[in-house]
Design brief:
- Helix content is 36%, strand content 18%.
- The protein has 228 residues and is α/β, with parallel strands linked by helices.
- Strands 1-8-7-6-5-4-3-2 form an eight-stranded parallel sheet.
- Strand 4 (84-88), helix 4 and strand 5 form a beta-alpha-beta unit.
- It is globular, with a radius of gyration of 16 Å.
- Pfam families: Ribul_P_3_epim (PF00834).
- Keywords: Carbohydrate metabolism, Isomerase, Metal-binding.
């Protein structure tokens, strides 16, 4: 599967979002962190900003909803222009119904798991999803240190995806950088959210290219990729 790099605008300059989106031309998606100050202790942005960002860039939007009641709110982000919408397993009341609604509205449906949430109880839901997001930090703030203890969970998730013969993506988010991306790729991730590792550099587009090259190199030698 192709490596994808999704810069997180949580680490961008919110006063210059259109320019910041342009600065990562060549990225596969723009990762948009939506936080409501309830599900996570931070408040970021909502539907109007997603709509505006969609008008300002041709790069598709990957919206990660760290919010309560995503069953109610997630469909609005599809209508706002998101090409992929991720809801949290811990917050969704009816995840299968919600995933189907997101897909029916024309977006990719994705589900996220906090670090302490195991993948195994959700195995039967995987065919309903286009992507699964493994959080490699506690959600809520950018710039956190990568949690190495999530690597076995990434491997187990990749094994489940392979066992069921699914063509779904496996995304990691949190502390992804030049120091950690290869380990994530070797473990089974193929979609990488990077915030400060991209926007904290002098040349965000070059950072995207460099991270992609690292992940592609690690994936090429990974047993899970060779067996796929």
């Amino acid at each position: 599967m192709a490596v994808q790099i999704n810069p997180s605008i949580l680490s961008a300059d919110f006063a210059r979002l259109a320019a910041e989106a342009e600065a990562v031309k060549g990225a596969d998606w723009l990762h948009v962190d939506v936080m409501d100050n309830h599900f996570v202790p931070n408040l970021t942005l909502g539907v109007p900003i997603v709509e505006a960002l969609g008008r300002a860039t041709d790069t598709p939007l990957d919206c990660h909803l760290m919010i309560e009641d995503p069953d109610r709110w997630a469909p609005q982000y599809v209508e706002a222009g998101a090409g992929s919408v991720t809801f949290h397993a811990e917050a969704a009341a009816a995840p299968v119904k919600l995933a189907r609604e997101i897909r029916a509205k024309g977006a990719r449906a994705s589900m996220a798991l906090k670090p302490a949430t195991p993948i195994e109880p959700y195995e039967d839901l995987l065919p309903e999803l286009d992507m699964l997001l493994i959080m490699t930090v506690e959600p809520g703030f950018g710039g956190q240190a990568f949690l190495d203890i999530m690597l076995p969970k990434i491997r187990r998730t990749r094994e489940l995806i392979s066992r069921h013969g699914l063509e779904m993506w496996l995304q990691v988010d949190g502390g992804v950088s030049a120091e950690t991306i290869e380990r994530c790729a070797e473990a089974g991730a193929d979609v990488f959210v990077a915030g400060s590792a991209v926007y904290g550099t002098d040349d965000p587009a070059a950072a995207v290219r460099s991270l992609r090259a690292q992940a592609e190199s690690a994936t090429a030698g990974a047993p899970w990729a060779c067996a796929h």
